[in-house]
Amino acid sequence: MATKEDVAALDGRIGQLEETVAANRDDIAALDSRIGRMEQTMATKEDVAELPFIRQAVVETLETLHEISAMKQTLTEMQQKVNEVIAGQARQELVLQSLALHLLEHESEIRALKAR
Q: How confident is the model over 9-28, as pLDDT tens digits?
């Protein structure tokens, strides 16, 4: 039969085991929490599967941006040429007005000469 001392020693050991089990439960709960956070932030297979498509979309977007930049440059050059053409047409309009005035003067002089 076990003596009171043996029972007390067993009670002490059981108490220590209960404390160890409680500490292990706390550790397991902390690990479970960490695993939960890792699962929340971890990419899924679907996320990883979409990466090539995302990369391709980024590449296409960059190419489009370069094309837009080139188009802007071309548009600026064309606008400059249009402005030059407009300025040239304005000069030609002045020349035509001057020629028309000279023509009218000459016609008037011819009529005057014929009338004499």
A: 888 899 999 999 999 999 99
81-104 pLDDT, tens digit each: 999 999 999 999 999 999 999 999
How far apart are alpha carbons 66 and 115 in whole angstroms? 73
Select from 68, 96, 95, 73 the least CA-distant residue to 81. Answer: 73
CA distance linking residue 104 with residue 110, whole number of Å: 10
Residue type, 52: P
d(CA 12, CA 18): 10
| DSSP one-letter code for 43 | P
User: What is the pTM (predicted TM-score) of this model?
Assistant: 0.47
The amino acid that residue 58 corresponds to is V
Start-to-end CA span in the chain (Å): 165
For the record, the structure tokens of 46 come out as 């679907």
Residue with tokens 């209960």: 18
